[in-house]
Amino acid sequence: MDIREELAYINQFARTALTEEQVYVFSVRLCDNEVDRDFERFDTAALERLGELFLGKSGIFDHQWSARGQTARIYRTEVVREAARVTTAGDGYCWLKGWAYLLRTEKNADLIAEIEGGIKKEVSVGCSVAKRVCSVCGAEEGCCQHVRGQMYGDRLCFTELREPVDAYEWSFVAVPAQREAGVVKRFGQEGGEAALLRKQAALGRKYLQELRKEVVRLAMLADDGLDGSVLGKAMDRLEEPELLELKRGYEVQAARRFPAAPQLRRKCVEERGDETVFLV
Length: 280
Fold this sequence. Notes:
32% of the residues lie in helices and 28% in strands. The protein is built from seven helices and ten strands. The longest helix has 31 residues, at 192-222.
């Protein structure tokens, strides 16, 4: 699937159409049908249903339900089947893959770098199911004497999660219940030209940021009655031509107010009558 098709999926969840330059896209292994650390697992039908429920759901951190923690959104899902692999339960292994996007903003720059660097990788899902049954006898959880994690003959007791009814969110976590849940890889690879343009854009933003700080500094030197915070906000709305013009004007004013003192006074030279005053 090319980027135009991906953007078509993404823009179903955006209020204004997003472009390739505005989004960072990556895929995650949300969950699978293997027995996890809590001795629970989703059956295959549950994964199919979760694929529908997770569309449009937010990615957050550590299952903390706060709008401030919203980072990404799932826009497409697929159940991936690995025919050569068998689960602990004895059936074919499969897992739910989700594609997520987040905006390329300064706020998200560190998160993108951590995803790229493999720091932010593990994920966990928050959802609810209608049925939780014992793998040994098929009874509803709590209605039998079997204990999760114990072996009964050659059968491991675990709880099978069936019939999902809701998906709340997915989170970046340090230790997921499902051992293999996490970021798979970023969608696509930037070509050399695109990477160069992105690098140049970042340098341009840094240059403007430094230029704005310098204009504010000069303005405060020229007139110490100015409010620096208010001035800083005003500079944020200006681009390079206006900033350079203000910089030249404030440099002149600051120089008049704080003229540079000469390193050597002529009178001192005349009094000494030699050149030793120039020794450093």
